[in-house]
Amino acid sequence: MKFDVITIGGITEDIMFHAKDLKIIRNPNKIGSDELFAFPAGEKILSDEKVLYTMGGGGANAAVGLSKLGLKAALVGAIGTDPSALKIRSELKKKNVNLSLVQAISHYWTGLSFVITAGRRSDHVIFTHRAANEQLRLSYPKLRRLKGRWHYLTSLSGPFWQENLDVVFKVAKKKRIKVAWNPGSAQLKKGARFLKPYLKETEVLILNREEAMELVKSAGSPRSRSSPRWRAGAAGGAAGKKTSNIEKLLTILESLGPRIVSISDGPRGAYVYDGLRPIFEKALPFPAVNTTGAGDAFGSSLIGGLIIYQGDLKRALKLAMIRSNYVVRKIGAQVGLLTLKEAEEAMEIRGQGTGSSN
């Protein structure tokens, strides 16, 4: 079987816990998030809603998101040999995700994320134990045998992540597979100089605004190969005060090598850039219930849209925005995922009419 997309990344059990009495305070420091969760020391904090046990992880979320669009998806990742692993395998099979390269790591627990939401409910903090995910070790021969049109690469962790990164890109280059890449914190911390050889082989780079700023700041002062306005010396270098400007972020990131750059900007919307002109799509004007999984829904839908709409970047962005906006209306990273038919109906209602050309 040839898969439309092979996703590589994390697989976790997510525990969703909501506590309305938690305080959200302003961060007095200039670094990091603008807001902080405040926990009363020594107190028991009760959930005011039913605690949910769901499946998550970047690799699993992307695979399920693509499968729900009607695409053939395979997942490459690692789980433990505990009861959670059995439950996750069963759920993924029900969602038509191929698991032939999911590794069961003996003597390790399946990855766990404890997600606490509070206040306006879109605010959350995640406590993560990577567990078996950190023991993922890819085999070049095995990955090469898995036939696919795209690799969708998410966050990698553990002692083998650089080795795994090499394997993914070597297989992609050998077999002419397109790579969509949503790098994780371990990859971004290595900086642009380390990542550039891989970025040059990347078809679509997927980041949120904060991730884009981090990568750009590590890049020094590159010049976009396609933006005369930037080459002429727009204010601020790559590490200057203006690095939060989305268009500048797009042009700098594009200069590092990827053919297409995508930057999501939370409730404001998202941008894509292919070296010619940036395309922007507004977010839907609905309040978020929980933002867990929104980035995975956006990224996987963008790639799914490029496949379904045969490279039409604008239509793919619309699909990504619609599906990610519906995910944040539900508790859980995969609960609100729309089918292609449901997403296109929502696009019609919004006045974005588009039919599938697949």
From TrEMBL:
GO terms for molecular function: kinase activity. Keywords: Kinase, Transferase. Residues 42-336 form the Carbohydrate kinase PfkB domain. Residues 218-239 are annotated as: Disordered. Pfam families: PfkB. InterPro entries: PfkB_dom, Ribokinase-like. Residues 218-233 have a biased composition (Low complexity). PANTHER family: RIBOKINASE, SUGAR KINASE. This is Carbohydrate kinase PfkB domain-containing protein. The lineage of its organism: Bacteria, Candidatus Komeiliibacteriota.
